[in-house]
Amino acid sequence: MSRSRPLSLGSLPVSDTNLDLVTGAFSNTGSGIAQRLLDEGREVRTLTFHPERAHLLRDRVRALPYRFDDPVALARSLEGVTTLYNTYWVRFDHRRVTFEAAVANSHMLFDAARQAGVARIVHLSVSNPSLDSSLRYFRGKAQVEQGLADVSVPYSIVRPTWIFGGDSEVLANNIAWILRHFPVFALPGTGHYPVQPVHIDDVARISEDVAHAEGNVIVDAAGPERMSFEELVKAIRQAVGARSRIVHLPPAAMSAVSRALGLVMRDVVLTREEIDGLTGGLLVSAQEPRGRIRFSDWLAEHRASLGRAYAHELRRHFAGAAPA
After folding, report:
1. Are residues 56 and 89 in the same domain?
2. Parent domain of 190
3. Residues 48 and 74 in one domain
4. 114 and 190 belong to one structural domain
5. How far does the chain reach from its first CA to its final CA, in angstroms?
6. What pLDDT sits at residue 50?
7. How far is CA 112 from CA 36, 169, 242, 304, in A?
8. Domain count, the chain
9. Can you give the CATH number for the domain in which 99 is found?
């Protein structure tokens, strides 16, 4: 059922058009948000680099191409939109797609939303971003947040920890795949650093909830379970019935192993920045968890299918040389 009510844009009331735009609605996080909005009776539009890509939501979501090459066209694609849910980002540099370009594109998107009269922007960031971070991923996320704060559109920022679940599950799935196929599984460092997985459905619910907040808000999206990374890997190993031996490697050696596996798979398995963010304990929240779905319960439910097929990041996101 649609939530139709006046929204606040500064001191002026803004009518709800019942139209929202979710960037990357054919990607994992974006599709979770889009599905929830559709279930609520909302009309959903998306911006994507792959408007013709087959997807379960393809017939229910109007797909338009990103027009970062044309700010006027980009603003036109946002006309009539009540809430922009922004999931656009890049996981790693690839050819001309870089963190720096993603930051600039994000700022352009926010300005286009302002020009189009969008009532609120709900932006998906990351847990523990910092302008002072030595990690370009986390520093870039903080720069995007800063740009959003400067654009003069009411906003809600959602900072997820480690997202799991959904039709395009990657991280937990590929951990399970490696455990199923290799006799040894390597952990960077001690493995004792914490993680706090949050389900994609919880991220979608939290994002939709804060779209109706008063004023500007920043919230973490973290799951109800916190564990060490080694405990998470061991839980997956037990769930899928694997017998891989778990070993510990220095982060630099782990990065080399990941690159080697990536060459075999023709993919990017785990970047050095991701290793450093993981071992630095950045995938947790200091806030009361807003997620409700337990990773252990989800794991028990999906143990038979998890890791049966490898989830290929480059094929999925860069089929058209740009992220979804």
Report:
1. yes
2. 171-195+225-313
3. yes
4. no
5. 28
6. 85
7. 25, 31, 49, 45
8. 2
9. 3.40.50.720
Is 179 in the same domain as 303?
yes
Residues 6+ apart with CB under 8 A from 198: 160, 161, 162, 163, 164, 221, 222, 223, 289, 291, 293
Q: What's the rounded Cα separation, in Å, for the pair 138 and 128?
A: 7
Residue 194: beta bridge partners? 228
What's the number of CA atoms in the CB half-sphere (13 Å) around residue 218? Answer: 12
14 or 33, which is more confident: 33
pTM of the model: 0.93
Torsion of CA 144, 149, 153, 154, to 10 degrees: 110
Tokens of 80: 């009539």
Tokens (6 digits) for 18: 């019942």
Per-residue pLDDT tens over the stretch 138-168: 999 999 999 999 999 999 999 999 999 998 8
CA distance 221 to 322: 27
Tokens 């959904």, residue located: 166
Reduced to 3 states, what is the DSSP secondary structure of residue 180? helix
